[in-house]
Every structure is written in structure tokens, then in C-alpha cells.
């Protein structure tokens, strides 16, 4: 499948020219982030929570404690909606009305399942950590039995999704281009700085290559 089919659920209504249902485009936006926002209902109240995730194929993995109310609510409903957004720039127009932002965003709709198989569960935890810093799982102590049992891991299989992006300049009213108001775009980028070693770390322990690579890629 190269594209998700368009339905009432995932159709981008406002600004449809900025929409994409291409699977590769959506996966790229997902892979460029580490935090997502998940909506759920708890005791009749709508709640949105940011959480870390990892992606493998058409599955999004998340984890939490066994009593995590978001996780339990999602399992009870069997469905989930996830959003991811990158802010790429502030679009400052001549008029207040046309101020905007450049961004890349994805909204996902999927069904939820608890990961029971121990091997798949450990692989899912590795996927989440490696999504944060690629190839870093081999440089950490894996969960011990107590930690492993205390962690609830879920897979959200993507049933459908859509992306929406804006990557352009200012769009003002024709008459405003003759005014003396300043307009332009302020690009925004998330960057990594040099790592700060834990103060209790032995001087003989060197920084893993995975961390070095991450910093160099994201400077």
C-alpha cells in the first residue's frame, strides 16, 4: 500500500492542497519525531497526553506503567488517535489575519493491542529507545525481570492516516503588499548540543558511538 484511502475519518478538510495520504511521507514525518500526543477519554473527560513512541512498519509502540490511565483507557476502547507535529517556521505576515506557521504534521487512527509475547515486548521497548537515539539499545542495561513485568507495552496498528504540511512564505492580501509593515519567515529547527556526561560517570567510560552520531546529525 503506497497511500492510505481517504475517508471521513482521515480526510483533511481545511487546506486540502496541503494534505498527503502517502505512506512514505507519513512515515518520514513520524520517524523525524520522538514525542506524540494521544487523545483518550477517562471518566467521561477528554484528555491529551504527550508520550514517547517508536515505529516499526505500520505499528506505533508506546509503553507505561501497568496502572497508567491512558494505556488502560486505550485498551478498553480498542482505538487510538495520535498526532505528531514539527514546527519549521513562524510566518509573520503584514496583517495579523495572515500570520501562520510552517509545519509538518501527521494524524493517525488505529486499533490497540497489548503486547503479551515477551520477545515482541522486548523488541518493542528497543524500538522505542532506538527511535529516540538510533542504535542505542545495545549501549544500555536492558530491563530486569521486575522492570519488565511492571511495564505495559502497547502496539497501535495504523488503520489510516493523513499528513498536512506548510512550507512556504507569506500570503498577504494584495493591497497589503504596498504597506510599510515588515513580513517574512523565521525558520525554526530543533538542534542537539554537545552531550553532558553524568557527574558520577567514571572517566574511563566513553560516550557511545550512537550518541556521537545523533549529535553530529542533529547539530
Automatic annotation (TrEMBL):
InterPro entries registered for this protein in UniProt: Pyridox_Oxase-rel, Split_barrel_FMN-bd
Pfam families reported for this sequence: Pyridox_ox_2 (PF12900)
Top-level taxon: Bacteria
Stated name of the protein: Pyridoxamine 5'-phosphate oxidase family protein
Taxonomic lineage from the root: Bacteria, Pseudomonadati, Bacteroidota, Flavobacteriia, Flavobacteriales
Amino acid at each position: 500500500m503506497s497511500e492510505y484511502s481517504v475517508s471521513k475519518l482521515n480526510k483533511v478538510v481545511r487546506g486540502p492542497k496541503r494534505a498527503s495520504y502517502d505512506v512514505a511521507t507519513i512515515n518520514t514525518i513520524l520517524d523525524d519525531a520522538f514525542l506524540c500526543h494521544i487523545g483518550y477519554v477517562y471518566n467521561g473527560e477528554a484528555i491529551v497526553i504527550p508520550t514517547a513512541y517508536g515505529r516499526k512498519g505500520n505499528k506505533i509502540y508506546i509503553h507505561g506503567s501497568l496502572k497508567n490511565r491512558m494505556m488502560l483507557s486505550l485498551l478498553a476502547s480498542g482505538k487510538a488517535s495520535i498526532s505528531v507535529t514539527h514546527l519549521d517556521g513562524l510566518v509573520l505576515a503584514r496583517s495579523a489575519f495572515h500570520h501562520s506557521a510552517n509545519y509538518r504534521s501527521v494524524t493517525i487512527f488505529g486499533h490497540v493491542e497489548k503486547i503479551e509475547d515477551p520477545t515482541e515486548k522486548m523488541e518493542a521497548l528497543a524500538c522505542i529507545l532506538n527511535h529516540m537515539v538510533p542504535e542505542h539499545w545495545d549501549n544500555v542495561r536492558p530491563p530486569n525481570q521486575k522492570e519488565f513485568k511492571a511495564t505495559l507495552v502497547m502496539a497501535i496498528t495504523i488503520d489510516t492516516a493523513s499528513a498536512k504540511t506548510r512550507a512556504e512564505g507569506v500570503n498577504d492580501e494584495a493591497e497589503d503588499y504596498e504597506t510599510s509593515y515588515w513580513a517574512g519567515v523565521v525558520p525554526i529547527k530543533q538542534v542537539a548540543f554537545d552531550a553532558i556526561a553524568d557527574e558520577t560517570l567514571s572517566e574511563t567510560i566513553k560516550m557511545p558511538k550512537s550518541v556521537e552520531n545523533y549529535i553530529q546529525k542533529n547539530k
